[in-house]
Automatic annotation (TrEMBL):
A GO term, aspect molecular function: small ribosomal subunit rRNA binding
Gene3D superfamilies, per the entry: 3.30.70.60
Native species: Chlorella variabilis
Pfam families reported in the protein's UniProt record: Ribosomal_S6
GO aspect biological process, one term: translation
Sequence similarity: Belongs to the bacterial ribosomal protein bS6 family.
Descriptive protein name: 30S ribosomal protein S6
Domain of life: Eukaryota
Cellular component GO terms held in the UniProt record: ribosome
Amino acid sequence: MSAIAQLAQAACAGRTSSAAASRKASSLAAPRLAAARRTAFTAAGSSKVAQRSSVVKAAAAEAAAPTAQCTYETMIVLRPTMADEERDQELAKFQAFLQKQGASQLSDMVRGRQRLAYPIKRFTEGIYVLYTYTAAPTAGQAVQKYLSTPQAGAELNILRHMTFRV
């Protein structure tokens, strides 16, 4: 045999032995890898469960805390043909309602007469009033309900209203 043939045969023999050795090593390593993956997966899953339970506990504690205060903004659009006295009476009624709900840090800003984006009850302008206050979390819903239900004269004076939690 020539030297080249001997080298080729040795190279082929080396490849098969290394391939067989790698197959044998991978078959031994496969169970270890699978066990490591299962351990990592269950550890990650348990940490996600722990995170979810801590979020649920925090939300429950926040809901149970009676001293929690939220900051709200309420924008009211009034009829533009209202007299100043009539407007002041309407705003005083709303401020009294907010104080009854336990609102604090109450501030109001009359932004004045502004053009509406679209006609509301045949009016193209409105008087915008912005209220900012701090109150209990249930106050936002109470304000929306108060402004949505028609009181004596209020259904004609208030064109639109919206309350936001800041």
